[in-house]
Amino acid sequence: MRKRINVKGALRIYLSWPIILSLLLILMNIAIYMVNSDAGILMLGFLLFYIAIAVVLLLKRSTITGELVRFAADYGQVQKQLLKEMAFPYAILDNEGKMLWGNDEFQDILGNQKLAQKPISSIFPEIKDSMLPKNMQDQTIKIVRNEKTYNAILRRIVAPDFTEDESWVFQDEDSVLNETNSLIAIYLYDETEITNLTREKTEQKMIIGLLYIDNYEEALESIDEVRRSLLIALIDRKINKYMQGMDAIIKKLEKDKYIFMFKQKYLAQLQANKFNLLDEVRAVNIGNEMSVTISMGLGVNAESYLTSYEYARAAMDLALGRGGDQAVIKDKERLLYYGGKSVQVEKNTRVKARVKAHALKEFIEGKDKVVIMGHSIADVDSFGAAIGVFRIAKTLNKKAHIVINEVTTSVRPIMKRFINNPDYDEDLFVKSDQALQIVDNNTLLVIVDVNRPSYTECQELLELTKTVVILDHHRQSGENVENAALSYIEPYASSSCELVAEVLQYIGEGLKLRQAEADAMYAGIMIDTNNFLTKTGVRTFEAAAYLRRNGADVTRIRKSFRSDMDEYKTKAEAITATEIYLDHYAITICTSEGINSPTILAAQVANELLNITNVRASFVFTDFNGKIYVSARSIDEVNVQIIMEKLGGGGHMSVAGAQFTDCTLEDAIHNVKTTLATMSKDGDL
């Protein structure tokens, strides 16, 4: 005997309506009979006929129910088939991310039926277990499969418990769902074409670059006249061949300047080979005593060609300001440096020094007073350069002040000669709070021996005056003083005192240095050149000779540099504790306990360590005033400036440094070691 199909809910009521209507018609027939008996009898005939039809329908209900069931089954089969053959990939996962079912498109992406038995994280590594949605909020993840890119949407779906309560429909987006009645649906949208078009659009962007020959005149002068045209032709050929390799357009603007354009898709190639055009041009040698070097500046990710060109110009200025022989890439947010390993070539001409001197003179004459400051924890070079600028201001009858907050042991013996000296004003030296009261829009601010605002004695002064002059010998970095009225930054120079000494000679007005001033500037050159052993050139000795003619006494300066016994013992302990890392890098700690100027002492230790055989660079750490300072030194084999830049510092090729905040000595040493190991592995040292 077949079981009857139980019909529930609205469908059961719907099938019972003929019987319910029969009862209604019986009542209607009685009412009509009471009004008119003939009409009631006539109505009774129709009523009996309707009741007969209702009884038949009631007896046939199982047949109707069966037809409804067959229709529902057919409809469900159609739905299932449509879902199975849906045009985009779709699958169902359980709450742990294991795949329960996937349509044909999804199975085609998997390619292997066995994969369907694994968790979704095994199929698509981009989808981690932690990314599975915990609530009604969708998760969107980019995935790559079979060289195609998909946008995967993971969505929680809730199955009702087949009860009358349908409150599940109104779940809040952020509420965590009951995992017993929910599953996870995953939809894959193929975005390969969109991704390819986007990438192609990006790769087709044009990048504008500038290329300058750093030492064109000097290189030609170092070779016979008959070979000069050949040298120029070889360099042109190297540059043009390199540009052809990346389908670039290049145009010669001047004898030593080029502009070029290429598609952005070649940028990664240039970065991968680290702009080896720098090395190729440097290797050109047909008897020239001086290697030719070039600098490149590229502007990327700009909104227009004009903006890209401005970026390229800024990048080129930075490359030249850092000494040339390097490539700089600039976009909206960051700067990237490549090259810069060679020693800067000293310029033979003093034309630039003369031009800068005249410009500085005009600025001083146009202002009421001059305020000079160097970097924080001033050293002798910073102090000496400030004294030189002070003498220029006094010669031009302008009031001048030098901002100095902390007087180190190296600066103190030189500074004593200016304090309580009737030849100098009592307010010659001021602290930051006093300087803030002095500086106004009619003040010239001169910054010496530093070009990074955050390293100056008082950064707030930069915002109080519109006219700023920079005299420095350190390589520039991404942090620069904006809108400087005059910038004389020459990385080839041994010291800031050397630059100022050259400027002094072109001021005129009968300028004459006093003995104490000449001593201060000569001492600055001695300290920064390690007694004329590092970064010295012809112009360094010419500047020293000028200072000697103005009364500088080497014996008197040497006496002021002598260390006391505690400092000497500290230096000896630091040298004794030195570790040689990777066979060539000396690393040690210089204690700051009982030492007035530990950073100066650390620099002296770093210089001493270079006297050890096979030591290419030295790094000396000291903990002072809540910061970790590292002094880096080298002779010629390693560019410590590049190393320090990666750690947030700077300097130039053989003398550099960095500061660490919120860091221990051990962490700082670890950071330097990691940087050295990485750069050594990548061939950047």
Keywords:
6-stranded mixed β-sheet; single chain; 685 residues; 24 helices; 23 strands; alpha/beta; 6-stranded parallel β-sheet
* Straight-line N-to-C gap: 92 Å
Mean pLDDT figure: 82
- Oligomeric category: single chain
**How would you write the strand order of the largest sheet?**
7-8-6-9-10-11
The percentage of residues in β strands lies in 15-25%
Helix fraction by DSSP (H/I, runs of at least 4):
40-55%
Q: Residue ranges: pLDDT <50 for 5 or more in a row?
A: 161-178
Describe the main β-sheet briefly: 6 strands, mixed
- How many extended strands? 23
Instruction: Sum up the overall morphology in one term.
Output: elongated
Report Rg: 42 Å
Structural class: alpha/beta
Number of helices: 24
Report on this model:
The protein is built from 24 helices and 23 strands. By secondary structure, the chain is an alpha/beta fold. It is elongated, with a radius of gyration of 42 Å. The relative contact order is 0.05. About 3% of the residues have low confidence.
Q: What's the SSE blueprint?
A:
Layout: H1 9-15, H2 17-35, H3 37-59, H4 61-84, E1 90-93, E2 99-102, H5 104-110, H6 120-123, E3 139-145, E4 148-158, E5 182-190, H7 192-203, E6 206-213, H8 216-221, H9 225-244, E7 249-254, E8 257-263, H10 267-272, H11 277-282, E9 294-299, H12 305-321, E10 326-330, E11 335-339, H13 351-365, E12 369-373, H14 380-395, E13 399-403, H15 412-415, E14 429-430, H16 432-438, E15 443-448, E16 467-472, E17 486-489, H17 496-504, H18 515-528, H19 538-549, H20 554-560, H21 565-576, E18 579-581, E19 585-589, H22 598-609, E20 617-624, E21 627-634, H23 640-646, E22 650-651, E23 655-661, H24 665-682
